[in-house]
Amino acid sequence: WQWLADRWNGFKEWAGNVWDGVKEKWANFWAWVKSWAIWDWLAQKWGELKNIAGIAWDGVVDVISTAWTGIVNVTQTVWQEVWNLLQTYWNNAVQLASTVFGAIWSFIANTWNNIKSTTSSIWGAIWEFLRNQWETIKTFGGNIFGILADLITGKIDLRKAITRIWDEIKDFLSNTWTNIKTLGETIWSALSNFFSNQWELIKQLASTIWTAIKDFFVSNWEATKEAASNIWNAIKTFFSTTWEAIKTAVTNTWTAIKDF
User: pLDDT of 155-191, one tens digit each?
Assistant: First the structure.
């Protein structure tokens, strides 16, 4: 056993010396390898690669951030412009309906007043005709009665009576014709004024409605053009800023690659 113990101790000592020698040789070898200049060059290039990767990543992040901001801005602009446009359309439609309804109501009211005025003028003319005609008849009847009384009492002869009666008939017919002409002229004037006023009312109604419709379409067209212009400008800004971000990212990455 002692011999085995001595052999084991000797083996351990020998193994320890070998291990120490191997470690020393490896340390010397590793120190020699580390002394090579290529390691510094590789470390430098590794740092440059990491820098290129960082620049490229920052460029990608900037492009994505710029594009996302642009998309948000375009979306907000489109929504706001569409909403404003719908409000403009609605307000213009309400204004158009109000104007057209007001014009029609005014036309109806003025037409009714025109009818009342014309009817009143015609009725007044008829009433005046009847009154004048009644006075003419009374005068005619009274004169005829007086002539017959004079004939009966012998104040005048039959020839004179016939002549005077004929004169009364002529005056009666003349006055009646004058009354009829006056009635006809008054009615014609009332009807002429009615149709003239009514035509002016129709022209005014048509002009008001046409102007309201024209203003409706013009206002909507201007609002549509403005909304389209604002949306187009937002889209152009989006593509412009995104393109500039892409160019900047590519330029910075390419510069870093060239410097590598």
Answer: 888 888 899 999 999 999 999 999 999 999 999 999 9
Task: State the pLDDT at residue 94.
Answer: 94
Q: Work out whether the CA dihedral 101, 104, 107, 112 comes out positive or negative.
A: negative
Pair 238, 85: CB distance under 8 Å: no
Question: What count of Cα atoms within 13 Å lies in the side-chain half-sphere of residue 203?
Answer: 6
Contact predicate 59/250, CB 8 Å: yes
Q: What SS3 class is residue 155?
A: coil
Q: Spell out a b/e string for 54-63, using b for 16 or more CB atoms within 10 Å of the CB, else e.
A: ebbeebeeeb
20 is written with which tokens?
A: 């120490």
Q: Using an 8 Å Cβ cutoff, are 165 and 144 in contact?
A: yes
Which amino acid is present at 255? T
> Given this model, what pLDDT does residue 36 score?
52
Percent above pLDDT 90 for the chain: 44
Q: What is d(CA 64, CA 72) in angstroms, rounded to the nearest whole number? A: 12
Q: Tokens 């003025």 correspond to what residue?
A: 110
How far is residue 240 from each of residues 17, 70, 78, 81, measured CA to CA in Å?
Answer: 74, 10, 17, 21
* Residue 170 token pair: 């002529």
pLDDT of 260 over the 60 cut: no
Amino acid (1-letter code) at residue 95? Q
